[in-house]
Amino acid sequence: MVEVDAVGAENRRRFVLELRDKFMGMARMSSADLDAVVFTELMQVVSFAKTRIPWYTDVFPSQEFIQGLSSASELLLHLPILSREEVQNNFEALYFKAPDFDESDFVVQATSGSTSKPVSVMKFGPLYSAEYDALTLTEWHLNKRDVTKLVSSFRVIDKEARNVPLGPPLSYLGANRPSTALSVLEHSIDELLDELHQLKPDYLYVNGVVARQLASAQIGSGRPPISVEHILTVSDRIDPQLRTLVQEAFNARIVDRYSSEEFGYIAFQCPVHDHLHVSAPSVFIEVVDEQGLPCDIGVSGRVLVTSLHNFTMPLIRYEIGDIAQFGQPCDSGLNWPVLERIVGRTRDGVRLPNGEFHLVTFFNSEMLKLRKIRDFQVVLFDDAIVFVYLTEKDFDESEESAIRNELLSLFRLALPVVFRTLPAHYWRNMWKRREWDRLESEFDPGWDEDELMTVLTPLLISLR
Q: Would you state the pLDDT for residue 220?
């Protein structure tokens, strides 16, 4: 049995590295050659979906029509947009199980619900995990990271580990330094910061919310300086203020990625700049307007994602719930499409009194430059905008006034702004959340801390 497992492990390693080499080859392609490869793979998944997946069989145009098209963009414009609701309501009709595969190879992953109701997606586990690992190695290669350096992780995990060898995929490249992974649900920010000073990792995996708290705590702590080469962020949108804060606190560069449960990697941060590059080997991205037509570069629109390799449950032109904009081609040498920024989520909007839909986003927010803010959550009630926050030292009158004015400007609603502070222990499990959320109820100024936390609990997102 050991020999069989060893052979299986070596075959997987070989397959992952071959995929990595293929993806790296695509990283060096010209835009024209890349478009041709992506179009070929898109044609395969669309043709498969038309003939094998009941939902697509009913709504896609004929095979003859599909075969007559000549580019990925042209092809997709003739296909319907797939909504989250349609995936929720047509799960059985959207997947295909080959009869000769082991049932245990098929896995169902559910989204967190951070963009709306959770969505379940079926994947063929062995291929998905191998592709995910290959893309991880590709991203490490593009950013010229050294696998012999020290890696630590402060994430939501079921079981903590100290001084254990890194496993796949980095071990495929010879990574053998002991690594430590700690749960952000089990430690306070000050405890994690103490651990960071003891571990002194070169690379730290952490989500954006915790990165902000760690950096703010470091700046205000009087602790000795500490340098981290790369802070590898997941889960939260990264704003310019957080990049500046982390650089100031840890002399570190944030390297972000855009991912989801439905697709895995969607985009990686550029090796040179702060914008993102679409993960062209695995997904095709569109940014479209309200009519479903392509947006120009620099114009925000709805994000549609198409998986190029999930033949078990192809998600084609799937509206993921985000708003983003494409950027100009990049001078880094990587020709994968540029996502200039993720603007927000489609549900991050309010209806103004005149009936206009208004997107509320804290990207590039002035108040986030305040070093006092350790963490925050904005909640829109029916009768108030409530700013819940954590600071080491409370705001002075001018700072509170600046925050109030910015919130009123962002929301464009004639509502009072209420400030409420919550002590640090209330924030421990609030590791991933939207910058602002809404509660269709009235705010009670008489709520104490526990009562306020009870009201906020339904807004919190846990991916454990």
A: 74
What is the C-alpha separation between 265 and 261, in angstroms, rounded?
9
Q: Find the Cα–Cα–Cα–Cα dihedral 177, 181, 182, 183, rounded to 10°.
A: 170
- Cα 57 to Cα 67, 93, 197: the distances in Å are 15, 10, 57
Q: Which residues contact 9 (CB under 8 A, 6 or more apart)?
A: none
| β-pair partners for 277 | 268, 338
Nearest to 314 by CA among 38, 123, 78, 132: 123
To the nearest 10°, report the CA torsion of 55, 57, 62, 68. 70
Question: Does the structure show a pLDDT above 50 at 446?
Answer: yes
Q: Between 171 and 207, name the one with better pLDDT.
A: 171
CB atoms within 10 A of CB 373: 22
- Say if CB 103 and CB 297 are below 8 A apart: no
The model carries a pTM of: 0.84
Three-state secondary structure call for residue 429 = coil
**Residue 140 tokens, joined:** 């490490």
Within a domain: 335: no
CATH number of the domain within which 383 lies: 3.30.300.30
Burial label for 279, CB within 10 Å (0-12, 13-18, 19+), is buried
Q: Which domain holds residue 89?
A: 1-144+283-327
